[in-house]
UniProtKB/TrEMBL annotation, chain A:
One of its GO terms (molecular function) is 4 iron, 4 sulfur cluster binding. Residues 42-71, 119-148 form the 4Fe-4S ferredoxin-type domain. Keywords: 4Fe-4S, Iron, Iron-sulfur, Metal-binding, Plasmid, Signal. NCBIfam families: DsrO. SUPFAM superfamilies: 4Fe-4S ferredoxins. It comes from the Bacteria. This is 4Fe-4S dicluster domain-containing protein. Residues 1-29 form the signal peptide. It comes from Azospirillum oryzae. It holds the Pfam family Fer4_11.
């Protein structure tokens, strides 16, 4: 399992995948191992040239993971870039980078957030006290406080799906095949080949976090904090104040 | 990037995750540590000239120190799980260390406060009143014991140093926020905390104390010195950022320099430091209430700007996140509630042990020698 949805459906296992998808358990109901399998190192390559900004991944993630209203584990940041009089759109899917050296982990005062042996960074929301130190420490604004659980929340690479042999929901749904998921420890996997051959970039490399979400076609202007006019539309501050 | 313009069309707003509760915590714990330090010369080191100021500083240390952990607990989104801190070993997290330092400090503060006030408790116990028995019980049959005060003072000084260290470093290690990630921050927290504590001492001198001129002049002189240190720190930070000698500081300044709101805040912060400094230097007598109010305001504003302002700077997105103070517990009610708790503690403490009136019966034979001896009979 190391493909984008497009390749996946072309594969021989399309029918079984469909069945498995139907049977997929809700985010927190499956038996997901706490520590993962060290034989794998899961990673994602995002080919921004193929992203059309449809936000299907954003919606699929929300539906799959029961992300509360106005919160996002992934989103496609969309920019209008005008260069020498020509305007164009630029799409940048953002999610947790499942860093090799994640700054969110050492700051956690309870050990609620940790890295599995397969590299996926997770939060045990039965242990998390909601201190939000990890939210501050993440250089990518990838974490937030979930106001339904009142704990730290973030992308898990859909660990429950991955353990069931499925692709993350965002990858599964991506119409352009811009998100490619796979195992870096498998030299024949698509992500391994892309990382080897395409020299993809990561966000904020100067932070030394060694992200395991790579980008092909990443504009250096978008690599760090974007210098531009702030967004014209943002979600309202969380409307479900009664949960707070 | 010549001739390039980027407009962000869609992105996510990350709301502040450290709430105004955190501002209140860092403000109160800072004032408590500042108050404690100011009380030490008069009590732990038995410098009689510092006793009246130390008495007010003790009120600051105790009332702020007891209210602070409540604010901190409230800033957790799962406050009922606070015990999770105490069943793990997480030495990489400064917050985890803080969970050990806070009870150490507060426990030390209570013992030290009791040792300092034992003399007054004993005095109240000698008055024929309904509460005399309680005072005697609280005094545990003793009075002033300078050795005990000094021992407790040194113990709590260690706790205060650890609290000052962890509160500063906890924030300064956050590399993801250039505005926080500076070695100046812990020093700035400490100096502004001292200024705030002095400010509160000057206010209390007028409100619950005896409007002691000596306290006012000493307080204002100390305030001027501390504010000079605040300005020095700020100046060094700015110089390092402007010079570009350090990329991190330059990035920090860069992240906010273009914002009109931040420029206004900077001017405000400078004014709130320079104005009380000038007044305190020019007229240390008769101005304590004014300089005190500005100093307390300035210490609070510094923390508000660091925490709420700092979190309004997106880590990846363009521009700034907007912040509107919610009216509920996540916002205004948190601020008002914490202030209310502090006020309650102040009223309780000054009602039980009034600053201006210790019973004459309680005066030890040698009391005339120390400045705490501007005592008047209560009943």
């Amino acid at each position: 399992m190391d493909r984008s949805r497009r390749n996946f459906c072309l594969g021989a296992g399309a029918a079984t995948v469909g069945a498995a998808t139907l049977a997929a358990a809700p985010a927190d109901a499956g038996a997901v191992s706490a520590s993962g399998d060290a034989a794998h190192r899961w990673a994602m390559v995002v080919d921004v040239r193929k992203c059309v900004g449809c936000q299907a991944c954003t919606v699929a993630c929300i539906m799959e993971n029961d992300v509360p209203e106005n919160s996002f584990r992934t989103i496609v940041s969309t920019y209008e870039v005008t260069e020498q009089g020509k305007a164009g759109s630029y799409m940048l899917p953002r999610l947790c980078n499942h860093c090799e050296d994640p700054p969110c982990i050492p700051v956690c005062p309870t050990g609620a957030t940790y890295q599995r042996r397969d590299g996926i960074v997770v939060v045990d929301n039965s242990v998390c006290v909601g201190c939000a130190y990890c939210v501050q420490a993440c250089p990518y604004d990838a974490r937030f406080i979930n106001h339904e659980t009142q704990t730290a929340d973030k992308c898990t690479f859909c660990v429950h799906r991955v353990e069931a042999g499925l692709l993350p929901a965002c990858v599964e749904t991506c119409v352009g095949g811009a998100r490619i998921f796979g195992d870096l420890k498998d030299p024949d996997s698509t992500v391994s080949k892309l990382v080897r051959e395409q020299n993809p970039k990561v966000l904020k490399p100067e932070m030394g976090t060694q992200p395991r979400v790579f980008y092909i076609g990443l504009d250096p202007k978008m690599q760090g904090k974007v210098d531009g006019t702030p967004t014209l539309w943002r979600p309202a501050p969380h409307a479900d104040k009664e949960h707070a | 990037m010549m001739d390039t313009h980027i407009v962000e069309v869609i992105n996510v707003t990350r709301e502040v995750a450290w709430l105004p509760w955190a501002v209140q915590y860092f403000f109160l714990i800072g004032l408590s540590v500042g108050g404690l330090l100011l009380s030490l010369p008069g009590y732990a080191f038995a410098r009689d000239g510092w006793r009246p100021l130390g008495r007010l500083a003790l009120i600051v240390a105790l009332t702020c120190g007891l209210a602070a952990p409540v604010a901190l607990l409230s800033d957790l989104h799962q406050p009922g799980r606070f015990w999770h801190f105490y069943v793990v070993f997480r030495p990489t997290s400064w917050m985890w260390w803080g969970s050990l330092f806070i009870p150490f400090y507060i426990a030390g503060l209570l013992v030290y406060g009791w040792a300092c006030l034992r003399e007054e408790l004993q005095a109240h116990g000698r008055v024929d009143s309904r509460l005399a028995g309680l005072y005697r019980l609280a005094a545990l049959g003793g009075g002033r014991d300078d050795r005990l005060i000094r021992a407790a003072g040194l113990f709590v000084l260690a706790g205060a140093a650890l609290v000052a260290l962890y509160t500063g470093v906890e924030v300064a290690v956050v590399k993801a926020r250039p505005l926080w990630h500076t070695p100046f921050l812990p020093v700035q927290f400490l100096t502004t905390a001292l200024a705030g504590a002095l400010g509160l001492v000057l206010i209390l001198n007028r409100v619950v104390g005896t409007a002691d001129r000596g306290v006012e002049v000493l307080g204002n002189r100390l305030l001027a010195a501390v504010l000079a240190a605040v300005m020095l720190c700020g100046g060094l930070w700015l110089a390092l950022s402007l010079s570009g000698l350090d990329a991190g500081h330059a990035a920090a300044l860069d992240s906010v320099a273009g914002s009109e709101a931040w420029r206004v805040t900077a001017v405000w912060a400078v004014a709130a430091t320079v104005v009380p400094f000038v007044i305190a230097v020019a007229r240390p007598a008769g101005t304590g209430l004014l300089t005190g109010l500005i100093a307390v305001h300035s210490a609070w504003m510094f923390r508000w700007t660091v925490f709420i302002g700092g979190q309004s700077v997106p880590k990846t997105g363009a521009g700034f996140y907007e912040y509107a103070l919610p009216a509920g517990p996540d916002g205004l009610m948190g601020i008002v509630g914490t202030a209310g708790l502090w006020l309650f503690l102040l009223i309780l403490m000054t009602a039980l042990l009034p600053v201006s009136s210790t019973p004459a019966a309680g005066r030890p034979a040698n009391a005339s020698g120390h400045p705490g001896g501007r005592l008047t009979a209560a009943e």
